[in-house]
Predict the structure.
Amino acid sequence: MPDYLTIIAASFIIGAVLGWLTSLAINAAARTLGCLIVIVFVLIQILGYREILHWDWTALLELIRPWAGVIADRLAPSLNAFTYNLPLSAGFLIGLLVGMRR
């Protein structure tokens, strides 16, 4: 087997194992996080119903709008790293999906 195929296969296998282990960690933490999100969501709904909490959507939009370009600029290097590490990323994704289905 040529050296480059060995490197690609090793990267793919390492990525798959790391993805599977990540999925185990995500499954363990997801239940707790899900419960906390539901509790916060219900609390926000109750406070909104009783008119204790009020959202000013136009002010929120004006607060977020200047950051949209900054966030897009910061994500560009991450996308380049993803395409460079494609074998490891593909293995990670497959391992993650296999572990999440369990």
